[in-house]
């Protein structure tokens, strides 16, 4: 019996981060990663060099689809930047691709979609992961950065300009009632992976390079690490609780390396989120780790190709 075309359909997913570019060949039917490759990003080399590497990985994965006799539907690219409705990259926080014809470059190989990494990860959870039971959920990713998006009826909400994801990047300006000091704390500079590294290195006097070293120190009983993880989780929960109050989702799903790490950071975050949810019947909403782990970015990037095709077919 001939194999169903849907069973053979696949897409290339590229998760282009500040540290690495993860590429995979993803099956439409299951979200399974059929082939993968990872290379360092090294964004300091400039946008053109990173784009050249990403295009090379896309070609390699497309070739793998041919060898496996799969039906390649296109290439999806997730980036840690603001991305407008037409796939135009509108920021250059990590990658020097702002206003560059990135989507057109990949479209020279196959139909292509460029999307923000948080919306790609959220889409992966909606299609294949922990978000499948929910019509309306908030997805939060915590790692090198912190970002969020709302998923409604299986689709990420991008906002009017594609900017509905910067929950943790802007300051929360507050003035002390006692001394009048004005503070401008930024959640991403307090509770992200690099923030944990910087805070622990400063407070303990022991230089560390990775967030995992801070979590390991806390597990070993290091008081400085314990205090930093607890306060970082509380700060994240404060913000996510506010998002829950504004959007009233069915659930919160958390991905990213730090967001999926569990332990004290997770426990502190969940407790603080519930403490900051105002409505009594919202306070017990499910708060779940993402199911796809480190693959959510590349699976979600590929999933953008599948959803773009669905949307085009409905027109």
Structure description:
This protein has two domains: 5-129 and 294-314, ATPase, nucleotide binding domain (Nucleotidyltransferase, domain 5), CATH 3.30.420; 136-290, 2-Layer Sandwich (Nucleotidyltransferase, domain 5), CATH 3.30.420.40. It is built from ten helices and twelve strands. It has helices at residues 5-8, 47-67, 102-107, 117-128, 188-191, 193-204, 211-219, 223-247, 263-276, 296-314; strands at residues 9-16, 20-27, 33-40, 71-79, 112-116, 136-142, 146-152, 155-157, 174-175, 182-183, 251-255, 287-289. The strands form three sheets. A five-stranded mixed beta sheet has the order 3-2-1-4-5, sandwiched between helices. A hairpin with a 5-residue loop joins strand 2 (20-27) and strand 3. Helix 4 crosses helix 10 and helix 8 (223-247) runs parallel beside helix 9. The chain is globular and about 65 Å long.
